[in-house]
């Protein structure tokens, strides 16, 4: 198995700015270089986290006087979207901005939380007061061991900070991208280019930790849709991750690939359902990793008795050429963070090593209730949702085969690319995920037939054990992960090209 | 901790809405505006097995502000979200919105004025602030009792969310409307042992606590968990498949997508108003679909949509013909049609044959209670999904099923569909308990 080195995910940017104002609205900071209309603040210094850490530390200290454990999490997300299509363009605040504090106490037996949609000190203190009044300390059934003391503030790395480019210039960048991507093809009915610059902020405070981070996120995408002789088709290309405006431009290779896929998509047909020899592109390998031994080893499922994987700790679950990891410390990946939402520092976790299941992913609850070491996988969707054991960047490690050899080995089967969705089945170890397309191959070469979409179903150990080739290439693909059908967090998944057998329909 | 002046979080709430209205109305740069105050509070309860894992209270309030400015012959639009703590930054946040709006633009359209108001029942006092704790405790108790009464079934976990929300929408065209609503959501996870270990997951949501049949949910999920311990993989072939009401909203998603005014305007819809759907009608019953925003206690009911269009019940598909798109105000203006508001609850008429009749015969007939995840291709209608829980009917024998895949095309399937005469209400769906489709492809044993 190749060595996965510890990477520095984010650049340390200095100590907390004591006594400064509370978090500055992100939009103001992005507008700072624009010389906007009168009245708009032209702030050039990011004061985050400012007094917030100290305020939360004070509240946590008050709670800790009564309870065996207390913590505070500030979580926010905001951003600006620029979208251009054939009808016009929109510049607006992005999606669903969210901003709030969640206070948590442990009574010795279970957790209690109060969450407010504000970082206002009065609102946070009121929430703490409610916890102090409502919750009693119970008989100590479990103990939470304090982590080593750590105080640090992070800022994500980027080449071109969006705050250094005026909003008008960023709109011009989207206009230029739209013109560049435009094709004079009567089949194309609609087309859009979207650039979303976001900001994700976290502050975690407990008795030993004062951690703060700011990550700038980019979601730059091109979408095309059309009809050819009544048959619909679409193409999609994107750059998504943590970084700066350097990501807000698609490469010529991406455009060429998307154009080819769009044209091909008009001629897709449904997959003849059946068992196939398959090669998965890295995006589909990632889906397999995520849905098979990602969700299935989130240890809160062990506490709930619904994970079959619990019986297989230390046992073989995959071909011995398969190793599977989760790593929130990968620089620039959409699922990365410097610390999880319970204050555990990011580092890789090896889940499967040479086919053996060696370690699950934990949150504080599951590690506490089962007495296991913590991994950096306690994550929440937003301030008003609970923290669960979640994946970050989950992937199958590089193998030894040349991807060209993997493709050439496909004598009569399908090559699956792109992902749409998947779903876990931690108890039954069934699996379902859907790839964008399946390309028919015979004697190592494409026949020209393209199927879409392509849904893979099967039994997890069977698919993992049937892996006979693992490529020496490697790629991560961004996505969004739900737990069940809710609790969405940004992730990536990926790996190399792999060869296995699967039921495809 | 701080010598800064107190922000008086609670006290600023009423003032922010008034201040916003005044500031937006007085701003000469702004052609039109809309504000939407959204306040919510909730109680979440989490059990592991039957013991508490955690509880949490949540409370939040936001103001979504949209401003519209003239930008040549186009209408620029931008939005910002404010919280109670933003009262002191009102002017700068409005400046941000105006500046952003001025950088873009669409074909102009008009916000709805103070027209027809609709009242829709969406609020249950039992889930309101004064009673939510007691209601939550009652529901948790009912869940524990129901689980304990199920022989052979073990609880895995439960999550219960009880909450209320209040929305107030105002705009520069004189519209001023408000609504309150409640929601209760229950996640049930049950385990069973037998020939093989099995689990059953159930996610159920309603507007009223009384509509959440906790005992029934647990009994059904428990029985299905027990059935799954000896479930078989369905046989491969093309034969009739019934899809349960719980999965029909997902199955019919391409209908929702292709009947929208936005898709028509974008020329991305496969449907044409006034024409039959592109399905090959065979021997089935014709499709009829309403979007119903005024169904009492419907999960997707609304008194007004995000732009203030009053909720209504509108027929989209009549006997297989696309008769009216669902249209937000913007796209209704573009198409010159009547705005209906956003898509709401599904309403389908029941059919002629009972569920028992639809599952009778020599078979095989597959009844899919639940797919692993059903997400048909919105444009092509193609789908393929694993059966998470189902039943195979063959020569009068009913066998539980898990695994295997059902695949086909939504559009083709609707050409040969029969709707059960048994009616059900499933939160955002009112219609037949199941629909039978002839000749779908099953890939299994």
Describe the structure.
- The complex is a heterodimer of chains A (505) and B (445).
- Chain A is α+β, with helices and mostly antiparallel strands and 505 residues long.
- Chain A is built from ten helices and 24 strands.
- The two termini of chain A are 33 Å apart.
- Chain B has 445 residues and is of the alpha+beta class.
- Chain B folds into three domains: 15-225, PmbA/TldD fold (2-Layer Sandwich), CATH 3.30.2290.10; 232-246 and 351-443, no CATH class; 251-347, no CATH class.
- Chain B has helices spanning 13-26, 90-101, 132-148, 214-228, 245-251, 253-258, 261-265, 329-335, 355-358, 410-414; strands at 32-48, 51-71, 74-82, 153-171, 176-192, 198-206, 237-244, 289-292, 313-318, 321-322, 345-347, 365-371, 382-394, 397-401, 405-409, 417-419, 423-425, 429-432, 434-443.
- Chain B has a six-stranded antiparallel beta sheet with strand order 3-2-1-4-5-6. In chain B, strands 10-9-8-11-18-17 form a six-stranded mixed beta sheet, with helices on one face.
- The relative contact order of chain B is 0.12.
- Mean pLDDT of chain B is 93; it is low at 1-13.
- The interface between A and B is large, with 92 and 91 residues.
Keywords:
heterodimer, A: 505 residues, alpha+beta, nine-stranded mixed sheet, six-stranded mixed sheet, 10 helices, globular, disordered N terminus, B: 445 residues, PmbA/TldD fold, 19 strands
Question: Which SSEs are present, and which pair or pack?
Answer:
The complex is a heterodimer of chains A (505) and B (445).
Chain A: E1 11-12, H1 26-31, H2 52-66, E2 69-85, E3 88-93, E4 98-106, E5 111-116, H3 121-134, E6 150-155, H4 167-181, E7 188-205, E8 209-228, E9 231-242, H5 252-265, E10 274-280, H6 282-293, H7 300-303, E11 324-326, E12 349-353, E13 356-357, H8 364-370, E14 378-379, E15 388-389, E16 393-396, H9 403-408, E17 412-423, E18 430-442, E19 445-451, E20 454-459, H10 460-465, E21 469-470, E22 475-483, E23 486-495, E24 498-504
Parallel strand pairs in A: 6-8, 10-17, 16-23
Antiparallel strand pairs in A: 1-6, 2-3, 2-4, 2-7, 4-5, 7-8, 8-9, 10-24, 11-12, 11-16, 12-13, 14-15, 17-18, 18-19, 18-20, 20-24, 21-24, 22-23
Helix pairs in contact in A: 2-3
Chain B: H1 13-26, E1 32-48, E2 51-71, E3 74-82, H2 90-101, H3 132-148, E4 153-171, E5 176-192, E6 198-206, H4 214-228, E7 237-244, H5 245-251, H6 253-258, H7 261-265, E8 289-292, E9 313-318, E10 321-322, H8 329-335, E11 345-347, H9 355-358, E12 365-371, E13 382-394, E14 397-401, E15 405-409, H10 410-414, E16 417-419, E17 423-425, E18 429-432, E19 434-443
Parallel strand pairs in B: 7-12, 11-18
Antiparallel strand pairs in B: 1-2, 1-4, 2-3, 4-5, 5-6, 7-19, 8-9, 8-11, 9-10, 12-13, 13-14, 13-15, 15-19, 16-19, 17-18
